[in-house]
Design a protein that fits this description.
The chain has a seven-stranded mixed β-sheet with strand order 4-10-9-8-7-5-6, sandwiched between helices. It has a four-stranded mixed β-sheet with strand order 1-2-3-13. The longest helix has 24 residues. It is an alpha/beta fold. A hairpin with a 4-residue loop joins strand 11 and strand 12. The protein is globular. Helices cover about 40% and strands about 15% of the residues. Bound molecules: pyridoxal-5'-phosphate.
């Protein structure tokens, strides 16, 4: 049996992977079982912003694993405080609640917002509402898919959790109209990653901040994908000079090594939790804390945020030179760019399959968008190499179609 056959036999079919079997990663490069080399333009959905097997992160992981890895929060450790202190400092938030996966951080945010709604705002029992945006992606738990607008995510998983209201993304008037006295929070991605790197109009976050202040509603930003340098700022909210009341982080927080997530908040919001009201066996374990702290330090000391801004601007400029009738739009910020293909001409899946043959790994989101989100450590030469491969693929598909 090949590795693909084995996986297909023993692993649930909840993904549709490209047919490549990876065995090794280093920096922006990946290798398959036959020794072929690929440029990683996906970074595990932005979890590998530091590049694969970053030596400092490998060291932090192995040293801490050899010393003390998991204790549960039944005890204090010498690793958790320093990690969360650093995270609060870089984000400007007061307090953090450590979890493991992104979905858990979002669940934490939802619980915090609801309790704040009852205990602080004074919403009537079980009436709290959270407003979300259409086409959101916040994870895969039963509650989170309850407010997804993608039927694939929800079909057959009911009964769903109530208490959520959906408005179009980027539409401040619709958001204003949806707020009621029972609204505890607005939960939103500053840029919608899984929807295809969809950007709101300029000023949207600022307008949301003002609306929330006016109506005594929490602004909770999900920066699990957009945060930690991906958009050319440490956090996407910095582009508009605002600060949320609650913030979810994950993915790159684990340095491309392990799941590490956090819900961060202002003091008044986080203080709704007391012992027994929330928790996680693995959340905040010393291994995760050691890796998370090192991930933040590497990001600063290697100027990964500045690199994301610079290389991202360069990549955008180069991608725009592609000019092809196959492409409808190129959009994004920092090293997070979506190329939207015309589905009448070619599927994003076909582009990804052809890129793979040429040594570039990406992944389609929905039917039309190919994402370019390499590790933030990528060089200009590596960007050029990747874009040249994309150019070849685009020209091949164009010429096939003009011959037909
Ligand atoms: C990936 C993602 C999540 C979910 O994270 P998991 O670690 O897969 O649970 C939540 N929100 C956003 C914006 C994401 O991109």
């Amino acid at each position: 049996m090949t590795m693909i056959e084995k996986e297909n036999k023993f692993c649930a079919h909840n993904y549709h992977p490209l047919p490549v079997v990876l065995t090794k990663g280093e920096g922006v490069w990946l290798w398959d079982e036959d020794g072929n080399k690929y440029l990683d333009m996906m970074s595990a959905y932005s979890a590998v912003s530091h590049g694969h097997s970053h030596p400092r992160l490998v060291k932090a992981l192995t040293e801490q694993a050899a010393k003390l890895a998991v204790t549960s929060r039944a005890y204090h450790t010498d690793r958790l405080g320093p990690f969360l202190e650093k995270l609060c400092t870089v984000s400007g938030m007061d307090v953090a609640l450590p979890m493991n996966t992104g979905a858990e951080a979002v669940e934490t945010a939802i619980k915090a917002a609801r309790r704040w709604g009852y205990h602080i705002k004074g919403i009537e029992k079980d009436r709290a509402e959270i407003i979300v945006a259409a086409e959101n992606f916040h994870g895969r738990t039963t509650t989170i898919i309850s407010f997804s607008s993608d039927p694939d995510y929800k079909d057959g998983f009911g009964p769903l959790t109530s208490g959520f209201k959906t408005v179009p993304f980027g539409d401040i008037a619709a958001m204003r109209a949806a707020v009621t006295e029972n609204t505890a929070a607005i939960l939103i991605e500053p840029i919608q990653g899984e929807a295809g790197i969809k950007m709101p109009p300029d000023g949207y976050l600022k307008d949301l901040r003002a609306l929330c202040d006016e109506k005594n509603v929490l602004l909770i930003l999900d920066e699990i994908q957009s945060g930690l340098g991906r958009t050319g700022k440490m956090f996407c909210f910095e582009h508009e000079g605002i600060r949320p009341d609650g913030l979810t982080l994950g993915k790159a927080l684990g340095g491309g090594m392990m799941p590490v997530s956090c819900f961060l908040a202002k003091r008044e919001l986080m203080d709704v939790f007391n012992p027994g009201s929330h928790g996680s066996t693995f959340g905040g374990n010393p291994l995760a804390a050691a890796v998370g702290l090192e991930a933040l330090k590497v990001m600063e000391e290697e100027n990964l945020v500045e690199k994301s801004a610079e290389q991202g601007a360069y990549m955008m400029e180069e991608l725009k030179k592609l000019s092809s009738s196959l492409i409808r739009e190129i959009r994004g910020r920092g090293l997070w760019i979506g190329v939207d293909f015309d589905p009448a001409r070619v599927s994003a899946r076909e582009i990804c399959e052809r890129l793979k043959e040429k040594g570039v790994l990406s992944k389609e989101t929905h039917e039309t968008v190919v994402r370019f989100a390499p590790p933030l450590t990528i060089s200009r030469e590596e960007i050029d190499w990747g874009i040249t491969r994309l150019k070849e693929v685009v020209r091949e598909v164009e010429s096939r179609q003009s011959a037909a």
